[in-house]
Design brief:
There is one protein chain. The chain is α+β, with helices and mostly antiparallel strands and about 190 residues long. The chain has a single domain (about 10-180), classed as Aminopeptidase (3-Layer(aba) Sandwich), CATH 3.40.630.30. The chain is built from three helices and nine strands. It has helices spanning about 15-20, 115-130, 145-150; strands at about 10, 30-35, 45-55, 75-80, 85-90, 100-105, 135-140, 155-160, 175-180. The two termini are about 30 Å apart. It comes from Pseudomonas lutea. Pfam families: Acetyltransf_1.
């Protein structure tokens, strides 16, 4: 038996979710603010550089406690062996799309395909329910996430430059709304892609 490769699994969050959140690091480095151009690849967006700094949105495990047990949502945790390393919170949004409320991977587990596999499971969950696609939001200062979503097949559906002004009036942070639209002939497909 090969013990050099960790076993990867994704499970519904359990009572350990809060401990996992408290003991994980979800920061990312901000090195600039992108000027989002709908229809243009992320690589073509103009980025206004800033002195790099760490950003952490702060994840509140209690915020999602009801998602796990509801019929129209779930919280799924990625595990490498017996170590939780990432999670996705997905629900059915008011507009009929699946909505990824949160996708996060511990800094120590990044660049190993964890986020992509969590997106695969979110897509499976969405297709199984016959939803037309998935929507999520990220920000113009999280370029790594923007590249991930674009590479996965999401497209930008809109940008909100005012969304965070109540938190910080002078912010340059903008919300980017991404959509993964399923082929209408494949809605209801239950095999992960």
């Amino acid at each position: 038996m090969d013990t050099s490769s960790p076993t990867f699994s994704i499970r519904v969050a359990d009572e350990c979710f809060e401990d996992y959140i408290l003991n994980s690091e979800f920061t990312f480095t901000v090195s600039g603010y992108a000027q989002v151009q709908i229809g243009a690849p992320v690589a073509q967006w103009q980025v206004d550089p800033v002195e790099p700094y760490l950003k952490n949105y702060g994840i509140d495990s209690e915020e999602f406690c009801n998602y796990r047990d509801a019929a129209d949502s779930t919280v799924l945790v990625a595990w490498l062996d017996e170590q939780p390393v990432g999670h996705v919170v997905v629900s059915q949004h008011w507009n009929g799309f699946a909505h990824i409320d949160e996708l996060a991977v511990d800094t120590q587990a990044r660049r190993n395909g964890v986020a992509r596999r969590l997106l695969d499971v979110a897509q499976f969950w969405s297709r199984k329910r016959g939803l037309p696609g998935i929507t999520l939001e990220t920000q113009n200062n999280n370029l790594g996430a923007c590249r991930l979503y674009e590479d996965y097949g999401f497209v930008v559906g809109g940008v909100d430059h005012l969304r965070y002004r109540a938190i910080e009036p002078a912010t340059r942070e903008s919300a980017i709304f991404w959509y993964l639209l399923f082929d209408p002939t494949e809605v209801g497909q239950t095999e992960p892609s």
